[in-house]
Amino acid sequence: MASVIAYIDGFILLRDLRGKYGRRSLRLDPEGLVQRLRPADELLAVRCFTPDKPSALRFRGGEKTEIVLSRRRRTDVTCADCGQRTAHGNNGMSVDMAASLLADTATRASDIALVVSADSDFCPAIHAAQRIDPDRKVVAAFLPAHSSFEVRALVPVSLITHGTLRDSLLPDVDFAARDEPDAALTSRSGSPCRVR
């Protein structure tokens, strides 16, 4: 039995789930999702990367779930033709996910790294992980309607079906008044966060 650590792009995952199911109180069991994707493997950890505390509350964590708050950055872009300014958000999750993947690869933390993202920004980290430890298998799982030729060219890919997502959802609950999510939150620096 191989050991696995999962790295989940929480922003894209939650956005897609809200688009599909349309529930404000939507919550996901990330450990259940990974266990459905890799049933023959031993789950060591699930690292969910999310840009804000309200999104973090949408993940129900167990003892193996770590929720990492990534710093959101805002960039104003000015059109060279018309001068119109547009704000673009960059939440830094790709950098945080890459750092986590590389740290775990350097310490040989698991046999398999499961990347739940189709973001091609993650490709340099996958390349680096494969150079650091060629024996550590990196695999990706794409959400329905997401794909990346760049990621597909690097690693084996599986599709997360709507049924797998549905089975990983938790019943509707009112969690807006809660002080703490189920999983421990860590900031980008690794220090614990309190949800208010």
UniProtKB/TrEMBL annotation:
It comes from the Bacteria. Gene3D superfamilies: 5'-nuclease (3.40.50.1010). This is NYN domain-containing protein.
